[in-house]
Amino acid sequence: MTVKKLSLKTILLASLVAGAASVAMAHHSFSAFDVTTEKVIVGSIKKFDWSNPHTWAWIDVPNEQGGVDTYGVEGMSPNYLARRGWSRTTLKPGDKLTLTIRPMKDGSKGGMWVTAKRPNGEILLMGGTITDP
User: Fold this and answer.
1) Count of C-beta atoms within a 10 Å radius of residue 115
2) What does pTM read for this prediction?
């Protein structure tokens, strides 16, 4: 193999590795969320998406104008949550929750799930077991 072909293959391989690494880093980025702030929202589950790569909870939150704002809250992957006792039916439409989230940096209605509490006091964690011991 000539030096020119070897160099071209090396450059191509390095580019592919760098590209794959940047995609992986983007997927695991928290850049959309204000990780220095926590916000509490109180509402009802509108929809719970048990989907890869991350679960999403859609929460209807009453607003000051007498209407409802829908927040999109990102959670962990179904695989991760299933190993901690969650299932696709852990959250059902109409379930009432008080959620603590990391809000979106751009101010849109949504965030990253930190913890939630049901009216009966049950704590729903995205990390660790489903409930607080």
Assistant:
1) 17
2) 0.74
